[in-house]
Amino acid sequence: MAQRYVRVQNQVGQVYYGLLQLSFQVQVLDAPPWLGGQPTDVSLEPDSYKILAPCSPSKIVAVGKNYVDHAAEMDSKVPEEPLLFLKPPTSIIASVEEIQYPSVSQRVDYEGELALVIGDRTVNCTLEEAQTKIWGYTIANDVTARDLQKRDGQWTRAKGFDTFCPLGPWIVRELSPGARLQTFLNELTDPVQSAGVDQMVFPPDFLVSYISRIMTLLPGDVVLTGTPSGVGPLQPGDLIRVEIEGIGRLENTVAVR
User: In 10 A of CB 255, how many CB atoms?
Assistant: First the structure.
C-alpha cells in the first residue's frame, strides 16, 4: 500500500501532518511533507485524533468540462483551452463531515474528481517541469448548486458555499495513469460515475503548466481536474462516496444548512 499522508487534529486542537500507519497510528511529521517534513518520534493513537482535509491551500483551482462525456451531458462542447474557476478554501471539509445543503438552492449536485496537490512554487512552468510540481494526489467532490450556476451565468456562488469541497481523506505520492474514479450514491452497488482518469481531455501536467502561466501556484495548493459524466442531484440525508483506485474513498453525508 502506498504511503498515506494525512493532516490531523489532536484532542487539544493541535494540527499535525503525518504518515498514517496500517495500525491507524499517525507518525507525526515536523512540517508539511511537501516542505520537507520529516518523521518525528511522536505518534498519535487511533482514538486520539481526527482526520482533517489533507492540506490547507491558499487556493483551489478547478477545471470545468474536462471529460468529453461530461461536457456532452452539460449540453456543451469541450473547451479549446482548460476552463478554469476558483473555489474558496473555506469550502473545504474533510471526509465524513457533512455537506450543508443551502436553503437558496433547489438542485445540488455531486461531482467526483481527482485532485492534485502542488508541492513547490510554480510559475510559468513547462510540461516537463509540471509533473515535478505535482507532489501528490487526493480525492475531491466539487459540489455544485446547479440551479444557481445556470441562473448566475458564472460559477462563483454555485460552487463556493461552505462545505462544497470535500477533500481527502489523505494524499498519496503516486497514481496509476489509468486509475478508475467511481462515485456511489447511498446504498447503490452500481456507480453513478465511472471513468479512468486517463480519459481527461487535458491531463494533469498540462493543467498545472497552463494554470502556472496565469497565476502562481503555491505549495499545498489544490487543482481539481474535472468530473466525468454521471453527475446528479443530492438530497438531505444522502451518503455520497467518491473512490479513486490507488487512493481510497472520500465519503460525506448531506444535511440541511
Answer: 14
The H-assigned helical ranges of 28-73 are 68-73
- Residue 74 CB burial class (10 angstroms; 0-12, 13-18, ≥19): middle
Q: CB–CB of 232/185 below 8 Å?
A: yes
pLDDT one-digit tens code per residue, 179-201: 999 999 998 999 999 999 999 99
Interatomic CA distance for residues 12 and 127, integer angstroms: 43
Which residues partner with 86 through β-bridges?
61
CATH fold label, 60-256? Fumarylacetoacetate hydrolase; domain 2 (3.90.850)
pLDDT digit string (tens) for 30-62?
Answer: 999 999 999 999 999 999 999 999 999 999 999
| pTM, 2 dp | 0.96
Class of domain 4-51: mainly beta
